[in-house]
Amino acid sequence: MIAFASSLDQAGPITKTVRDAAIMMESMASYDDKDSTSVNRNVPNYEHALTGDIRGLKIGIPKEYRMDGMPQEIEKLWQEGIEWMKAAGAEIIDISLPHTKYALPTYYIVAPAEASSNLARYDGVKYGLRVEGDGLSGMYKNTRAAGFGDEVKRRILIGTYVLSAGYYDAYYLKAQKIRTLIAQDFAKAYEKVDVILTPTAPSPAFAMGEKSNDPIAMYLNDIFTVPASLAGLPAISVPAGLSADALPLGLQLIGRAFDEETMLRAADVLEHAAGFTAKPKIWWGEK
Amino acid sequence: MEQFIPKYIQGATGDWEVVIGLEIHAQVASEAKLFSGSSTKFGADPNTHVSFVCSAMPGMLPVINEECIRQAVRTGLAMGCEIHLRSVFDRKNYFYADLPQGYQISQFKDPIVGEGEIVVDLEDGTSKTIGVERLHLEQDAGKSMHDQHPTQTYVDLNRSGVALMEIVSKPDMRSAEEAGAYFRKIRTLVRYAGTCDGNMDQGSMRADVNVSVRRPGAELGIRSETKNVNSVRFMMQVIAFETRRQIDLLEDGGEVLQETRQFDPASGTTSSLRSKEEAHDYRCFPDPDLLPLEFTQEFVDDLAKALPELPDDKRNRLINDLGVSAYNAAVLVAEKESADYFESLLDSLAHKTGKAKQKLATQAANWVIGDLFGALKKTGKSISESPVSLKDGAELLALQIDGTISGRIAKDVFEIMLDTGKNPELIVEEKGLKQVSDTGAIDAIIDEVIADNQDKLAQYRGGKDKLFGFFVGQVMKKTQGKANPQVVNQLLKPKLDG
After folding, report:
1. Residues of chain A with confidence (pLDDT) below 70
2. Domains within chain A, CATH numbers bracketed
3. What is the pTM of this model?
4. By CB count within 10 A, which of A51, A137, B16, B465 is most buried?
5. Is B261 a domain residue?
6. Half-sphere exposure of B24 (CA within 13 A, CB side)
7. Interface of A with B in 168-187 (CB under 8 A)
8. Using a CB-CB distance cutoff of 8 angstroms, which residues of chain A are in contact with residue B155?
9. Looking at this predicted complex, what is its ipTM?
10. If we measure between CA atoms, which residue out of B266, B220, B118 comes closest to residue B179?
């Protein structure tokens, strides 16, 4: 695995069912003594956590995720999700995560900053592609111009900018402070609830390359998923319905730190209630 | 001292004062690198001590080598510095061919060691306190070799990722002599603490030298920073040259530029490497691959307890407990190996002679510093390569102390030991050098000498006391130096006086 944004990067399975995700998680998770940020603690039997019983479970609904201009179908799916959980015996509690609106800009400062540094090693000297040029800096320029795509270059530029002398305090340092506030929002919410339910994204999936010329619109799609990453919390997206164009829509469950068990248990119930069986009619590249 | 610069420097337009600060890079003595298990051994074939981590292969992550942390703490303790129980590793980003990560892991805002003070002894017998600003841990880069190929640069990554301690002084030094004394003191301290081998030929210690000049008492001037100076002699040349250059510039109405310079040992001059405008923007930020480094006060206390005796303490003990002169003590402690040799020699000597160390220390110190150091200097050897073993050295001194040989004979025996590596007792035996203390034999020789020199005897008795020495000399000559001088004196006096 290659580092993009070290403080946010996390391996996770993509599976057909929540049960498969639980099984995969259990075999993937363990302490890595070659990773200083790895935590040394016992890995639970995640599959055993899937009891199907969420009676009394307190599920938080953050009001800040109810965005202006969000498609009605997503709002409706979220409401459905709330009803399914309620029907399964969970207690629904309204919560507030007041710094949510800063999560996206914070993420798009922290991630590019780390990426700009992590990707410096792809310089053509030892590993990977080399494109010769005039002297060392010419070789660097040619290699990196040829080897990175537009979006990667854009992020390297943003990251380099936010770490530069005179801008560090205004961007990177401030982003780190807000990151702490976002984590505190969640910590406070988890005094009252066990797991948080939100939509996964504010719109159905767009086609590959469709928003390449409008990166801000593209980044906005991450608005519901980056807060958990910034706060270091486990989260899972479960397909739960279809958009008007028959594209899959997901609901997200965010758990307490290291409490994947509760999160997976709730996701399993949600999956069964949603009964999502749709298969895509076309795949990438098919007309 | 050749490059000695007095406190104030005479310029054409009045006095100037030089202000010096040093950033010393000391390679941590450790088996493995700072963040990988690769060996740190010097002199291996290029690129043979390189792991995936130190060549920055994709997906590789740093894991701190705890011994390097202990070494940094030990060094901080040896310098009397504040130890920070929490410190942070940062990334210093820049592109270079010998920096495979594209950044150096260093400590920027929160170093492992904070402020302290170092007392240095100066030539004129005074001492001065120099402030230490901080010590931080960082990775070394690889080595670019520009002389292996006509158009290409080769890179050796053996050094890449090796742990360095950067020891930053306050701008407290006011002459090349003070800077030299400070550098030597730091070197002695790290060698005593066992945290850096101090080997400057192998690049284990080098310094960035910051120099500025000002009118006495004025605000600090603009400084130049001369990079990677790897000997005390070069450092003093840099300071002398920079001082002169900056004063000349200012007196001609020019201004000193804040810039990075490089030293050319061949000419003894410095030249500009890059100006402030061309300086890198390192975009430092906390390394997200590493958590803040935290340890307990107990961890520090345990290291402090296990620290060996430090040079200042050792010197005081040699002076106060053993009666070694202040000068000899300073010479002995300057190199840990010398002090170790002396102390082992003294132990062995006390054991052999059954006498108290205090009674033997001065003679032993004089022999180590005078005879042994003199011989080593002639052959260009260090004390650890001494051709005379501790055991043989102690034996030689013991033979002298118990009266078996005289001091003069001891010098001859020492020469033979150096040439042949033979044991001193054997040499004395073989060459029949045993001191004659037999009064009968000496008596006879004295009588002979007096009989042969009746004229001198008359002069002596006429009041020429100085001739006593002549008679002693004659007796020694006839015995080939083997007569015990004390016995000779005792017997000769009454005979001459009649």
Report:
1. 282-287
2. 18-30+39-274 (3.90.1300.10)
3. 0.87
4. B16
5. yes
6. 30
7. 168, 172
8. 125
9. 0.94
10. B118
